[in-house]
Structures are given as structure tokens and as C-alpha cells.
Amino acid sequence: MATRRSARARGPADVEMPAAEPTAADEADPSIPSEHKSILKKTPSARAPSPTMEHEEEDHFDALFGALMPADATVALVVADWRAKHGADPEAALAELYTLIARAGGCAITITKDELDASTGDEIGARVVAEMVAGSVYADDPMDDSGGRGARKETFKAFAQNFSDFWDFLLRDSSETEELFGDENDGDGDGGDEDDAKKDLKRKSAKTTTKSSQSFSSPLFDSVSDAVALFSGSRSRTVRVAATKAGLQLVTSLVKIAKAKAETRDTKQRQLDSESKKKRPNAAMLRALTEALVKTQTRIRGAERMIADAFTKIFTHRFRDVDASVRAACMENIGKWMRSHPLFFLSDVYLKYLGWSLSDKDAKVRRTVLVALRNLYTASNENLALMDTFNARFQPRVREMINDVDASVAAEAVSVLEALYEAGVIPREDMEPVLALLMDANGKIRAAAAAVVPALLAGDGAAALAAAEDDDQGIATTTKKRTGAGTSPATEKGAKTRATLMSLVNIVKGLGGSRARTAAAVDALWDEFGETLSEWSVALDAFLWEDKSAQTGRSKKAPSKNVASGTTLESEQAAGLANLLACSVRRARGERLVRPDGVVRPPTKAQKESHERAREAFTQSAMRSLPAALRKWRSDEAVVTPLLETACHLRLEHYSLKHKESDFDELTKIVGEIFRAHSGRRAMEACAGVLFHAVREGSESLREIGLKRVEQAFVESAEKLRVAAETAAAAPTKKTSKKKGASSEEHLQEDGAQFRARVELARLNALLSLMPPPSGSKSPAVRDLFDDLVTIVVAAAENTGTLHPRAVALATRAAAMTLSHALVVLVARGSASVSALEITEHVALRDALLSSVVALARTSVEALENVGASGDKTSDASSRLGLRAVPKAAVAAFAHLVVVYQRPRAAAAATAAAELAKTDGADDGPIDPADCAPAPVFAPLELSPDEDQFRVVWDACNQLLDPPSDETNPAPVSETGTTDDEDFGDEETARLAYALSICEAAVGDHRFVAAELLANRTQSGLWTDHAISALLGDLKHLGPKAVGDVIFYSLVSAFDEVSSGDPDDPETTVAMEHAFEEFATRLAHMFNVGSARDRVVCRHVVEEGLKYVVPTSAPEQDKLSFLSLGLASFVPKLAALDAKNFLAPLQLVVDAVDTEDEQNAPLIDFAERIAGRAKGTHPVAPSGAKKQERGAPNPNPVEEEDPIEETQDDGDVPIKIGRR
């Protein structure tokens, strides 16, 4: 059984008053039964006078409380017993009721008849609170039915439900007799003892209430409601919750009684009307029915008066309770009352409480109010008529709540607006903000917004039909009849599906219509319109409809834009439908179009089967209609590109099974033609994806067809690239030979050649990103493709190239990908089938490309500096290289080569893992490729650029990290055509900086790239900060020393810039010192002294810093400021033991220098900091006052960013990294 514990253990919210000071503990009384000793804790009593022996021996689980505790309790019998006691001794029964409510609130107390007679209501309430403060409480809340396990939880598991049922049975059973409505016959009584007892009970109950008596009064109800109202205002939260629940149940029961009586009244009225219509009505029956009707109506009025009385006593005070659960319970119940008894509750007197609570500070309360309103709106249209004033006042608030901070509240507000729209209360334009929520980041809100779309589409369809009938009612009716008579159900279903699809296209168009927004909209709408979006035949056939009436000239009307009627799609509509179709195919295949809110679970077997069935269905439809749709819309890039993306999901084996290889050949031919017809990046990548799908999947015959198309695409692009490059190279010579006033034909020819070169390079990039060039090609242009690409890169690096910078960037990336494909082929052949000569030739090609890329990076840096200095970015060829595309391409190619040439080690690790799996050693964990040596023949393939090469490439990348400061360096343009915000920086450059840092950390020794990247924290935009956070997270896998080295090298690099300043310019020197100090402080704030790993990192930083300043027994004077400016911020992050270890050798250095010399002040200050930390404190620099006199900032400023914890291992305390 449950044990008793003090009120302090229940938490500060349980008893809202200060606890009384306990007296000396009472001795255990042997008279108390042993089973009760296991329930009640021996805590001191704070009430006066001391309890009598009768109270000490009382059973706190007896009477009503104990009868309602068992799960198998018969509540109706308990109520019958209490009513019998109430009839015999009302005051004793009422005392039991007071005790029940107090114990339901957790107070182990018994209120006797004498105490009730001698005390006022306030005194009883005060005694209950005093008992709880003194410790007379149960170990668990009896009203907590959350379902916790354990012996104590099982004790009160069924009590809460039985407690509510008790009040329900009490009123409903009493309503069947004269007990609840007894006062209506007071004048007819004989004045017996029972009436005297009732009158006496009324006098006693008047002591516990301050309300004036109503015109209609029920002794039983007055007594019960007064008891509940008394405890509902208690200062104890648990007692208040229990009493409020009882009070709300009283009103609920009275509403049920009034509803039952109303049904009885209607029945009696029908019987009376029926009897009155008879030719010879029965007078006795008429009189009886009339009396019963009057009596029932009187009881209905009495029940409604009792409802109003209980509402005033309890609800009007508790709807604003400090406990959110109490407020939510009030709103939930008043919503139920309004649905059950709308004629009584749907008035401004009661509706205002719902309106006020729409602005409650707790999300649960706001959500409960919205649920109540939605249920009211959907229950009956009559409710809306009664709520017109309320709706006019609070509709704006409901519309605002779709943007609530709580996702569940916003979703429920959307549902309320849907109910109002379906009822015709709000117009269509007020629902537009709801459609915008399809793009919301929260899944619940997106789902709620999607659930509204069917109602909106139905309303739009009805409005369009009504408008058509208004325009030409006769023609519309005739057409409708003729169409309905001549169309089949399948055709009508297809027309409805097309209309729905085009409506969804219009919705997506209103949301922006971009590729990403279409994907988000499809993901949100999938649960509601998944079947419609999966009608592949209908969607594909919509691209093939032709306006036959316009072609034959039979109708003079303009062609309709409604695809549902089978007319031609406009280009914009077709583009929207194509994007919708592409996203729907991806979603049907199980692809995630948006990032999920929670943990991503792998698909189940049933889901996988569903995805495969969807792919089968799409393949069947696309084989029939997709080639024709591609051919029809081949000239419209916005339409044909999404259609090409759907072709990547075809199951190609169906072409072989149905012997339709010719159809597949026709499809690949169309793809090849589209590939040559368009220059957009997305179109090129879509075509390359289809060709790659063709050579990877399907039978051998289909792959041969695909390989033929791939080789054809490579040959055409390589040959046209060679011609365009030669034409562009020859153009400057022709230009110099022209006289003044000559035609500009050569300029146009040059521009055309430049454009053709850029387009062909873009096509080659799209192909090379997925597949290598054909190895056995007979075309010289394909065989020499790598040499042509390297030639372009070398010419640009030597400032002798004539191609546009973007063409140079594309050539650089294409050369790196071509070489990486060659490496993959070599490694895939295996060490046994590769000769040393092949490896030597490949290494020579690699080194030549790497040298060219490094030279291109160096040239691009110089070009960027020249452009920034001259302000004219079009003066010569070198200044044109100042565009950011070239250095980005150089950095990307360099990092790509470093990563790819670790493949021999990865292959060795895969071989070792396979061998380990054969020997049952898989439980030893994954094999690190760094620990595996490649095969001897592959050893020369390992790539480890030297520090100079990394330095050149990093300088180019570091220059890109600086945001553009003027018009000569324009901000980078994203794929959507918008420039990146300078607060965010350039995402692509940040990714390249991260990749370069990881590469240098993996194959280098100094990690200077990571150190200098760290110096850009909070300086180069949010993307760079994210890259730094990811870098530190990856370096943690190499150990604390790796992170410490990066921090230390970053500090030294920044300090070298400070030291290299002009000593004759003190203002600049001081400013640089302040900047360096702030930078060191930002780095130190990334670490937490509570993390053991962070303390090791900071110890390594301080240790290396001391070696840097004091390499021997004597410090270097020019580096002493490094201690106070750079290392001082890391001292508070040290462990006290580490500080003690640093203190002894540091003290020897301090003793060996002149402490009076001002130059040694940084060393002395740092030693004092270490000494203070060794004592376990966080000291402040003694020289801080001097720094403030110079105008320096606080040496330990508080970082304004919110720290974000990045978890390391299971047993590690996370490192804190600031995020802007």
C-alpha cells in the first residue's frame, strides 16, 4: 500500500504556502494498526490542539475514500449507501463528503460531524492545508491515473475514474426521486422530522458559502456544490484539482439530467397532443400528462438553475487557475456542455470563456479551446447561427493562431478554419495563409494544411460550376446532360483526376512553383492525394491532349485552359504538371522529399513491396506515353526536364520481356536529341541520368543500346569542344588584323565559340559526374579528351588561355573527374592484372594535372588581387580569371584528387574485411583504411601533396571566404539566381574549405589549413561557422591532441600577423592585439571545463604555447605577449591538477627573470593566472586595470552566442561550439 510523505517532497506546486516548522517527532503509537503504519509516514503534526486518540486511531482508507479505491468497486452501491446515510443523518453524510474530497486531494485527514458543525468553510479549508504542510499526505496523488507501475501506483489506479463516477451517479440517481428536486414540493409537506432535518442542513450549509440563496434551492445540491466549491479554491494544488474535477462532473451530470428531462418532456408533449386529438380523450390521462409535463418542465428549469449555480461557484474561478491542467479541463468540459446543451450554453455569457482562453499562455489550454470550437462547428449548423457574435469577435484570433509557436496548436487552428470554411463562414481568400503552411518545417502543420486542400478544391469546383451556370445556364445544362449521357465512368473518373491534378498544380504555383517547393508540397499532400498523384496514365496523357476544336475550326471560342475538358496544356501549366509528376514518382518510390522531423526508420517489407508496385505501374504507363510526351515538349526545357527525371525510375526489364527493344532505342534517341538541344544544367544532368540508368540496368541488349548513346554523346561533345576551343584561340589573331571600322563579325564569332565551348564542357561535366568516357572509342577527340582538358587548364594557369573563366572552371572539374574514373578502373581490375608501366603512366598524368591545378590556383589568387587593386575586371585575360568560379574549381579539383587517391587503401581495407568475415572475426569492429597498406603495385598511386601545394590552394580558398567588399567582386550567385547573403557567406566555398581541411589533416602533418580556417570563425558567415563546427567534430575522432594542434596553430598564425605589424603605428598595433585577444577568447569559449576531453585539449594548447614562448630556460621577449593575449583565455578551462603541473616549471622561469621589468609583465600575469587556477579558482588578470586604461576590452568577455553541444562518444562530455 501507499506510504505517506511530506508536502515538501511533493514539489513546490502542490501546496502554495510556506511549510510550517516541524516540531519534535512524535513517538510511534502502538495502538495504530500495523497495516496503517506501512501506509502513513511518521511526520510531525503542525496543527493545534494536538489530535485526540480517536484521530490517531482513525483509518485513512475507510468510508467513501476506501470504498472507491478498488478497481472492482460498484460505485452505484456506494452512492446508494451514502444517500441512505444522508437521509438518516445529513450532517454525518456531508462530513464524509468533505473527507472524500480532501483525501482525493492527497490529504490524509478525517473531518467529523462535530468538526463540521463547529467550523466554518474557511476554517475547514485552512485545516486541510495545515495538515498537508505538516506532512499528512499520501505518498502518491490519488487523482494521478497516468498508469505508473508499482504497488503504490496500483493502490490509486482506479480511484480517479470511480471518483468521477461517484458524483455522476449521485446526481443522476437523485434526479429520479424527489431528493434532488425536493424543494419544489416544500409547501405540500406535512412538516415532519425529515423536512426539519433538511431545513437544518440548509442552515448548516449556509456557513460554508458566501453565495446568496437562489429562488430555486435543492438541499442536496446546495450541500454538495458548497463542499466542492470550498475545496476548489484551496491553496493546495492537488486538493484544488480533485475538487475542480468533481465540480466539472457535477455540471456534466446536470447537463445530462436536463437533456434527459427534455426528452421526457417532448415525449409527454407528443402523448398529450395525441390524446387531445382523439374524439373522446381520456380526461384522467390528460390531467396526468399535463401534471407530468408541468413537473418535468419545472425540473428542467431547476436543473438549469443548478447548472448556473455550479458554474458560478466553480467554473468562473477555476478557468483562470494557475495550474494549466485545471484550465484545460475547464475548457474541455465547457466544450462538451455546449455540444450537449447548445440552447443554454451557446450564448455570449459562456462563449466568452472560450474566446478569452484562446490567448492562454499554455499551449495545452489553447489547443483544448480550438478542439472544442472545431467540435462545435462540425456538430450542427444551428450552432454556427448561435455563435455569430462570437465568430465575428474571435475569428481574427483563430486566424492568427495558425502561426502559433506550438505546432499542435497551429495544426488545430487550421482544422478550425477548415470547419468555418466548409460552413461558409469565412471566404476562400482567407484560406490562402493556410495553403502557405504546406511549406512549413513541421510535419504536423504540413499534414493539417494538406487536410484542408480537399475542402478547398471542392469549394473551388462548386464555385466554378455555379459561375458557368450563371454565364449560360441553358447551354451548361444541355452540355452537362449530353456529356453525362455519353461518357463512361472511367472517362468521367479520368476527367475528375485531371481536374484535381491541375488544381494541385495551381496551388503549387501559388506557393512559388520552384522545384524545392513542389517537392515539399507533394510530400505534404501525399497522404491526402497519394492515389490521385499516382494516376500515372492520366498525368502522362494530359501532356498529349490536343485542342481538336481549335484545329478543325468548328468553334469560334478561344481554347479552354481547363485540362479536365481534354484541351491543350499551356506551357506554364505543363511545366507545373511535369514537376508535380517528377516529385510524385520519387515519393511513390519511397524517396524522402523533405527532411523528416524525427528519427528516420528503414522501410518495412510491406512498404518496399508498395514502392516496387508503384514503380511497376509507372513503367507500364510511361512505356506507352512518355516518349510521345518528350517528343512533343522537346523544345520546352521547363517541361521536358522533369519528364526526363521520371525516366530514371523505369524498370527497363519490361522492354526486354515485351520485346520492345526498338521502343527503348527510340527513347534513348529522344534523350540524346534533347541532350544536344538544351544548355541548362538541370536538363543536361537529367539526360545524363537517363543514359546512366540505361547502361546500368536492364538486359545486355538494352545496355548495348545505352552504351551506344553514351559514346555518341561523348564523341559529339568532345569534337565540338575541340572545334570551339580552336576557334576561340584563333579569334584574337583575327581581331588584331582587322582595321578600324571593320565589321564586328569576328567578335560575334568569338562570343559564339566561347558559348559553344562552355556548353560542351557543361555537357561533359554532366556525363563525367556519372560515368567514365568510353574506353574503346575510335574518336580521336574522345581518346585525347583528357589532354585537351589539361591543355585548357595549363593555358589558363599560364595566362595564355582565351576561354571564359567559367569554361576554365568546367574544364578543371572535368579533367579531375576523368582522371578519377581512370583510377577507379585501375583499382577495380586488381593488382594482378595491372602492370607497373600503366601505374607509372597514370601517376605522370596525375602529377601533371595536380601541378596545373596548383598553378591555376596561384594564378587565380593573383588575378583576384589584381581585380581588387585595379577595379577593372575586364581589362585583360588575367583579370577575367578574378571571377570566383576558377579558384573554386581549382580547390574542388585538388580536394577531389586527394580524396579519390585514397581508394587503393580503401580497396585494401575492403579485402581485409572480407577475409576477416570468412574467419568469423566480424565482431572485431570495422577496419580503418588508414591502417591498411595498399597492394605493392598500387603504392605509387598514393597521393600526399606537400605543404607548399596545400598552401597555394588554401590561399585561394581563404580569399574566397572573405565576403565581397565592392562591386568589382560580386557576391556569388546561387542556382536560383539570388546572391548569397553576406551574413551567411558562400555555402559552396565553406564546403570546399571544410573538404580541404579534412584532406590536409588526413595526409599532412601540420594541419595549418584547419588552423587558419578556424581563424575565420564568426568572420566569414554562418556557413563557414558550420564548416568549422563539422571540422572540429571530425578531428575529435583523431584524439584531443589533433584538436589541440589545430587550436595552437591557429593562435600562432594569428599572432604572427600581430607581430608583423608596423611598430611605428601604435594605434594599429593595439587594435590588432585586441582583435587577437578576442579571437583567442572565442576559441576558448568553444570548450567546457566540465568535459574531460576539453580539459585535455586546453592542456595541450597551453603546453604547446609555453614551449612556443619559452623554448629554453629563458623566454623570448618578442613572444611574451602571446601568453596574456592568446593563452590567458584557456587557463580557466584547465583542470586544477594540470595547472599545478604547469606551475612549478613556470615559477622557475619567473624566478630567472627581472620581475621589475615591464616587458616581463605578461609572463608574471600568466603565472599568477596559473597559480589561481591551481587553487581551483577562475582568476582575473591582475593587469586588467592597465588594459582598461589603454582602452582594451574585458579579457574574458561573455560570449553572446548560444552554445551548441556536439556529442563525441557515449562517455564523453560534449564540446560546446558557438553558433551564430
The coarse silhouette is flat
Number of strands: 2
Mean pLDDT, to the nearest integer, reads 79
Gyration radius over CA: 42 Å
Structural class: mainly alpha
Sheet with the most strands?
2 strands, antiparallel
Assess the beta-strand content as a share of residues. Answer: under 5%
Q: Cα distance, first to last residue?
A: 54 Å
Identify low-pLDDT runs: 1-59, 183-195, 201-215, 474-485, 547-566, 735-750, 873-882, 966-982, 1181-1220
**Percent helix range:** 55-70%
In spatial order, strands of the major sheet run: 1-2
Number of helices in the DSSP assignment: 53
Note down, in words, how this protein is organized.
This protein is mainly α and 1220 residues long. The protein is built from 53 helices and two strands. The protein has a two-stranded antiparallel sheet. A hairpin with an 8-residue loop joins strand 1 and strand 2 (1215-1219). Helix 37 runs parallel beside helix 39 (836-870). The protein is flat, with a radius of gyration of 42 Å.
